[in-house]
């Protein structure tokens, strides 16, 4: 968005020594929100509209903070009349901010409703999701057993496509801050090892521990469900089960391609170590390495997340304009009495974010411990991945039996009713 467009919407407040000039500027400084309904200020691109509204909201918030600081600094010198005028102006700015926030929320709902109002579009999307979900459930195990060296390519292509779709969909719902969660960070670690730093032993061990630790166990903690018709749920299962499958195929490639008629493991090992030199430099991993490398990776992610989301975007998160995993878990009205909420609020609401980060650290450490044993035993690692996949299937079965049969039919019927009403108009 161009700077001139923002300035045309929210002109900066300027002070004046003359009372008449100040009054005149007070009336003209406040941009008229009714103008947002005119084509002159509304972009045909909904996301541009959101960017414009967000910029306007940030500028009004900055003006509000500036006026409040000015009031505190000069309150002892100003006359009562000047104070009243400044208070009036501050109240107007607060009203503007509230109205812009409402416009932003309405704009997000508008995009979300338009993306899901067409029954045929919803059905086509769900059919594609079904094909992708079933395809992964059938094709991925076959490739892992017969061609484990192809799994990194299979994973990488799908990850790029699914994450692009997820970002577009989540942004329309104001959920795109979820993409900064640790599971996405670990997927980035996996991609970096596969295509940028295959020689890094630190990156491989850290990725192995994180993928088979906190990311894989998140299938249970976050109740990931293999619901084939839901693109959102298929993507969630993908980003949690495929990274551990990739590291599994790399670690156990010689065992997976073992020929019962001849000893070919040495050739497969040479191929693997040539493609991923880090494996050639690792004879074994120690429990100390598991703990240090996984914790280091977690601390790097948590530091970035804290600075960018919890501090840099604090106002947007607390105002409800953006939804994050920690705000959803801590403020969800459907789960206020859960273990996470009770523990996070143990020392009061002031320390809830810090307690939540501490809980995540404990979770990361505990779930990383089994990876030491998974790295040493092929059958144990195989059983572990099969169990995690089975949990996602079980959760999906519960969803289909208990929820889908009622919700999906009701959703399609409501969409058709809305379409009929639009046609009659």
Order of helices and strands: HHHHHHHHHHHHHHHHHHH
How many distinct folded domains?
2
* Largest β sheet strand count, sense and barrel closure: none
**Could you estimate the helical fraction of the residues in percent?**
over 70%
Q: What is the typical, i.e. mean, pLDDT?
A: 81
Given as residue ranges, the uncertain stretches (5+ residues, pLDDT < 50) are 1-20, 22-41
Determine Rg (CA atoms, Å).
27 Å
- What best-fitting shape do the alpha-carbon axes yield? globular
Structural class: mainly alpha
Distance between the amino and carboxyl termini = 35 Å
Helical element count?
Answer: 19
Report the strand count: 0
How do you describe this structure in short?
The protein is an all-alpha fold. The protein has helices spanning 3-9, 19-29, 46-74, 80-116, 119-146, 151-172, 182-195, 201-221, 231-251, 253-256, 265-275, 277-280, 287-311, 314-319, 325-331, 339-344, 352-368, 371-374, 378-424.
Task: State the main characteristics.
single chain, 425 residues, mainly alpha, 2 domains, 19 helices, globular, disordered N terminus, membrane, lipid metabolism, coiled coil, phospholipid metabolism, acyltransferase
């Amino acid at each position: 968005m161009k700077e001139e467009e923002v300035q045309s919407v929210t002109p900066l407040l300027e002070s004046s020594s003359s009372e008449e000039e100040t009054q005149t500027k007070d009336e003209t400084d406040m941009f008229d929100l009714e103008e947002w309904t005119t084509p002159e200020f509304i972009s045909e691109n909904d996301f541009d509209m959101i960017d414009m509204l967000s910029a306007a909201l940030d500028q009004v918030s900055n003006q509000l903070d500036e006026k409040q600081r000015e009031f505190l600094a000069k309150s002892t010198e100003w006359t009562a009349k000047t104070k009243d005028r400044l208070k009036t102006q501050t109240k107007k700015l607060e009203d503007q901010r509230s109205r812009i926030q409402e416009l932003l929320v309405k704009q997000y709902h508008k995009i979300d409703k338009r993306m899901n109002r067409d029954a045929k579009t919803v059905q086509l999307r769900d059919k594609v999701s079904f094909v992708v979900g079933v395809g992964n459930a059938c094709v991925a195990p076959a490739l892992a057993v017969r061609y484990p060296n192809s799994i990194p390519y299979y994973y990488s292509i799908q990850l790029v496509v699914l994450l692009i779709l997820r970002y577009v969909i989540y942004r329309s719902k104001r959920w795109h801050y979820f993409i900064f969660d640790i599971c996405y960070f670990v997927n980035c670690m996996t991609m970096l090892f596969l295509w940028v730093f295959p020689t890094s032993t630190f990156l491989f061990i850290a990725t192995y521990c994180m993928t088979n630790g906190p990311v894989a166990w998140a299938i249970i903690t976050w109740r990931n469900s293999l619901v084939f018709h839901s693109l959102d749920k298929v993507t969630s299962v993908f980003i949690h089960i495929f990274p551990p499958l990739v590291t599994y195929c790399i670690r156990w490639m010689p065992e997976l391609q073992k020929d019962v008629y001849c000893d070919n493991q040495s050739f497969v090992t040479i191929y693997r170590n040539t493609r991923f030199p880090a494996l050639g430099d690792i004879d074994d991993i120690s429990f100390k390495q598991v703990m240090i490398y996984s914790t280091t990776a977690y601390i790097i992610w948590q530091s970035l997340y804290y600075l960018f989301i919890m501090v840099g975007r604090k106002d947007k998160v607390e105002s409800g304009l953006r939804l994050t995993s920690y705000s959803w878990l801590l403020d969800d009205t459907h789960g206020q009495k859960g273990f996470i909420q009770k523990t996070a609020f143990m020392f009061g609401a002031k320390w809830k974010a810090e307690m939540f980060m501490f809980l995540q650290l404990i979770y990361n450490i505990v779930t990383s411990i089994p990876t030491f044993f998974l790295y040493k035993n092929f059958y144990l690692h195989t059983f572990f991945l099969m169990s995690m996949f089975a949990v996602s299937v079980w959760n999906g079965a519960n969803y289909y039996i208990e929820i889908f049969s009622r919700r999906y039919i009701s959703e399609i019927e409501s969409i058709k009713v809305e379409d009929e009403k639009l046609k009659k108009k």
